[in-house]
């Protein structure tokens, strides 16, 4: 069937600038031929369709000259497909470019982790917060966001001053993006002092209290009040009691002299010193900038030392009065009172100016807290942006003690997520540079400013900032220096710079990747292959090789190459590339699947060199595939789920949500799939939408519980589950509670309770997808409790409703029953059924002899190099064969791109067995940096440290 899609695409703004992440930046110097230009620069007078056609023809001509010895000849059918669905032609290697990552990267990551752990353990208590913040910066570059959030919580736990507390508490809240939850307030908290807006305004070091329930969750106490009302207090200064007066205009405020004198030293000097006022009963105070009403309030405060029931306007005037006459106690009271009044952005934006003018520390803190807890929305207010962005504003904040590296680190991260290229992002990073004092802070600030300038194509400034970062000690920034040199036309200089790293430092994947940009031919491919060998998680080498195959007209090989990384690391740019190639292969269903999955990961993604929004491409592709009803979609979802096809399942859910966007159940399913694909940011967004669309209170509580659980608030998640169950018994509430309870030390009593909860869940209505998961989990608990027959029943029931992953649990049961052949067969079934079967190969290796195990584990590593068990197994076998150096090398190969706790612990144990105490200690320290409570590593570390100390003494 032929479709001319230009009619569909005429209405799309295809030539608009990119508003989202670009995979392939347009190279304006790319070679073109013929009279038509690219984009809107085509032949004059033509319509949009003609301009697109000219643009397409240019791309087709460029793509037709891709081999030194041959031309690509496209068949009429292929040309028609490209004309219809690929108005920007096929991807080109010339336009591919890896991103310079905006994070700290060390050439010796294990040593960096070990050093962090040592400093955290040995530093004074009051300095721990700063080192944990440095740990946050290091963990930011890892794929596990839980490590970053854990460090952020530790930094908040050990914070001493109010400023640091409010920033870190707001940052923790931002990580859950609670601003997107309908009906929540910026000043809400999750129930613990860790994030409580009231607790953060209390200064002092008390690391244990952060886990206590905050004052927000307690019943309000009736404050003890005097029987005398404020009105009575105002009238209590009789003429007999007052011994002096302040005259302001026609008003006379009767006062007690010694009470007023007690407010400050200036008043005491004025009223009891050698000044003429000390001998007067009436003092003219009209020229001192205070109203009679405010002076009356000051008189009342001088007696009762409270500001109860005063109008905020009066307290603001009192604050200014207290500042002028050095009334520190009254200033502190005004500061606290006004701080308690700040509750929204409008208040904060107004009152922060007063606070800055009067150097009111708590008031400014309270205003900052609201503005930070409202991010990113608050930065859309130009008055708020001005408070943070200007150099002068930073100096004003510094005067009052509220300009810090942690503040601008938080603000700049939010700005970079919102719009990497914006002026706001640049200004905030410039403020970050001004606040940077320690080496790691300078490295991070300089490097990130370089990354942003590179994105803005301001290459000269980018090079300067990258060079500053290198000077501060950040070796990875040399990749930025090389890139900017290349952009400025100095390709050989860029090559020489990257080449110099190879003799000075331990080789890592990104060095080869970056150097490959400045090579050609066989040398380039060798560098890309070396990059993949050292770090298989780098996506650029796969993408380059895939596009190279496209240029050679080997489209099937291109798909195979990009599938290599999509099998274990799903990203929007790789999905886009596979969709692009699938269209050229006329596989429209595959293309549509990938674009739907892509748009689930990134709602704003722009395809085809940043020219076409993914949603528009979906509209174009839909007529080319078979149309499905919602019932058909459910059937497809079951099929994809049972075949462990997470990308396919994600695409089906996206299709279903297009027809029913308010279906919270589908949003929740979407979040589960995204978590399986290690896309936690997108998963949290889906969870928030599920919560917002929830049709009942008990359902909303469940989704809030999952949000809390996934961001490390286990106890709060349990409380949400219990609250939901108290309203209505439901599958998801019982499942959430069981899941959260099982995520701890699993004692027999807890196991029995978890079993009861899962059984209750299974009695509640749900669909087969979730019941299969519950049966699978229940089987796992039964296995842990050594109830193998009950476990087998659960797994069989799960398999009956197509929960394919239950094969793995059933294999475990057979293995424990010494039925290895049956266990092997179960895993073989899983391998045959599952689309993503690296874990199945890994598990099957446990049920066969050594040679077959090696083969299965080799396949597992090939399919998913991030799985750590195969490396550990191979290393253990080498150690058994007394090949210690090879065993260490096998573990080091994986640690280089995945610093995993188990890998580090095992390498430490190997070093220990070889008598290398220093290496043992280093690996233990790196492992404990990842998990400071890992008991086996702590034990090994203690012994290694003692032996090192003995050697040194």
From TrEMBL:
The name under which this protein is listed is Ethylene-overproduction protein 1
């Amino acid at each position: 069937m032929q479709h001319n899609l230009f009619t569909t695409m005429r209405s799309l703004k295809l030539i608009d600038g990119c508003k989202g992440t670009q995979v392939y930046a347009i190279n304006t110097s790319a070679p073109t031929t013929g009279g038509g230009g690219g984009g809107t620069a085509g032949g004059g007078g033509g319509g949009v369709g003609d301009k697109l056609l000219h643009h397409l023809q240019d791309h087709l001509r460029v793509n037709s000259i891709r081999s030194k010895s041959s031309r690509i000849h496209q068949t009429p059918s292929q040309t028609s497909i490209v004309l219809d669905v690929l108005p920007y032609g096929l991807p080109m290697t010339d336009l591919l470019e890896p991103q310079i990552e905006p994070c700290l990267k060390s050439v010796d990551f294990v040593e960096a982790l070990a050093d962090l752990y040592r400093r955290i353990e040995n530093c004074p208590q009051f300095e721990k917060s700063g080192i944990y913040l440095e740990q946050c910066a290091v963990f930011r570059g890892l794929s596990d966001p839980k490590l970053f959030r854990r460090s952020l919580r530790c930094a908040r736990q050990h914070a001493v001053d109010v400023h640091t507390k409010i920033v870190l508490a707001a940052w923790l809240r931002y990580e859950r993006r609670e601003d997107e939850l309908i009906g929540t307030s910026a000043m809400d908290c999750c129930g613990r002092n860790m994030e409580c807006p009231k607790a953060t305004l209390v200064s002092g070091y008390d690391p244990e209290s952060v886990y206590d329930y905050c004052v927000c969750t307690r019943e309000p106490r009736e404050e003890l009040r005097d029987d005398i009302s404020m009105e009575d207090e105002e009238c209590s200064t009789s003429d007999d009691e007052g011994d002096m007066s302040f005259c302001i205009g026609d008003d006379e405020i009767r006062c007690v002299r010694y009470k007023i004198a007690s407010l400050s030293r200036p008043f005491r000097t004025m009223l009891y010193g050698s000044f003429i006022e000390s001998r007067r009963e009436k003092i003219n105070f009209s020229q001192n900038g205070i109203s009679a009403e405010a002076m009356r309030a000051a008189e009342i405060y001088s007696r009762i030392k409270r500001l109860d029931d005063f109008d905020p306007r009066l307290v603001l005037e009192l604050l200014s009065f207290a500042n002028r006459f050095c009334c520190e106690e009254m200033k502190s009271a005004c500061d606290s009172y006004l701080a308690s009044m700040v509750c929204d952005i409008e208040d904060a934006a107004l009152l922060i100016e007063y606070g800055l003018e009067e150097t009111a520390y708590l008031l400014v803190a309270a205003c900052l807290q609201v503005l930070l807890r409202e991010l990113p929305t608050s930065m859309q207010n130009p008055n708020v942006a001005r408070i943070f962005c200007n150099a002068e504003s930073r100096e004003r904040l510094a005067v009052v003690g509220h300009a810090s590296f942690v503040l601008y680190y938080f603000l700049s991260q939010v700005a970079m997520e919102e719009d990497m290229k914006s002026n706001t992002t640049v200004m905030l990073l410039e403020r970050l540079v001004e606040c940077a004092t320690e080496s790691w802070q300078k490295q991070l600030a300089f490097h990130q400013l370089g990354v942003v300038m590179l994105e803005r194509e301001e290459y000269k400034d980018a090079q300067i900032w990258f060079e500053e970062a290198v000077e501060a000690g950040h070796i990875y920034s040399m990749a930025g220096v090389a890139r900017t040199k290349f952009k400025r036309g100095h390709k050989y200089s860029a090559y020489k710079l990257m080449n110099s790293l190879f003799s000075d430092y331990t080789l890592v994947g990104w060095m080869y990747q970056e150097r490959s940009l400045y090579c050609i031919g066989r040398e380039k491919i060798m560098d890309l292959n070396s990059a993949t060998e050292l770090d298989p998680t780098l996506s650029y080498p796969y993408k380059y090789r895939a596009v190279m195959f496209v240029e050679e007209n080997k489209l099937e090989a291109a798909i195979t190459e990009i599938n290599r990384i999509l099998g274990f690391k799903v990203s929007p740019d790789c999905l886009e590339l596979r969709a692009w190639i699938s269209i050229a292969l006329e596989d429209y269903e595959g293309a549509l699947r990938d674009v739907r999955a892509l748009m689930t990961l990134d709602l704003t993604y722009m395809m085809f060199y940043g020219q076409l929004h993914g949603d528009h491409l979906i509209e174009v592709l839909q007529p080319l595939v078979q149309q499905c009803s919602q019932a058909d979609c459910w059937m497809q979802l079951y099929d994809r789920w049972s075949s462990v096809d997470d990308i396919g399942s994600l695409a089906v859910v996206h299709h279903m949500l297009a027809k029913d966007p308010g279906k919270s159940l589908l949003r929740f399913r979407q979040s589960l799939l995204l978590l399986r694909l290690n896309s936690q940011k997108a998963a949290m967004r889906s969870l928030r939408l599920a919560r917002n669309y929830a049709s009942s209170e008990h359902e909303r509580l469940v989704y809030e519980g999952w949000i809390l659980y996934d961001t490390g608030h286990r106890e709060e998640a349990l409380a949400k589950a219990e609250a939901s169950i108290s309203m209505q018994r439901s599958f998801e509430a019982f499942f959430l509670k069981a899941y959260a309870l099982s995520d701890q030390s699993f004692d027999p009593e807890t196991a029995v309770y978890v079993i009861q909860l899962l059984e209750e869940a299974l009695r509640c209505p749900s669909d087969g997808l979730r019941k299969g998961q519950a049966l699978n989990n229940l089987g796992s608990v039964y296995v842990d409790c050594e109830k193998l027959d009950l476990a087998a029943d659960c797994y069989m029931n799960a398999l009956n409703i197509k929960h394919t992953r239950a094969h793995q649990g059933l294999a475990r049961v057979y293995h424990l029953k010494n039925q290895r052949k049956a266990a092997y067969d179960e895993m073989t079934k899983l391998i045959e059924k599952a689309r993503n079967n690296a874990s199945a190969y890994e598990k099957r290796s446990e049920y066969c002899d050594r040679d077959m195990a090696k083969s299965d584990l080799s396949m597992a590593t090939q399919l998913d190099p991030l799985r750590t068990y195969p490396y550990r197994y191979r290393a253990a076998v080498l150690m058994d064969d007394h090949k210690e150096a090879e065993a260490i090398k096998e573990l080091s190969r994986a640690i280089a791109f995945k610093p995993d706790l188990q890998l580090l612990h095992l390498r430490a144990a190997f070093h220990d067995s070889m008598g290398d105490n220093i290496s043992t200690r280093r690996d233990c320290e790196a492992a404990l940096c990842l998990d400071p409570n890992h008991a086996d590593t702590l034990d090994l570390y203690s012994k290694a440290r003692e032996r090192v100390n003995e050697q040194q003494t």
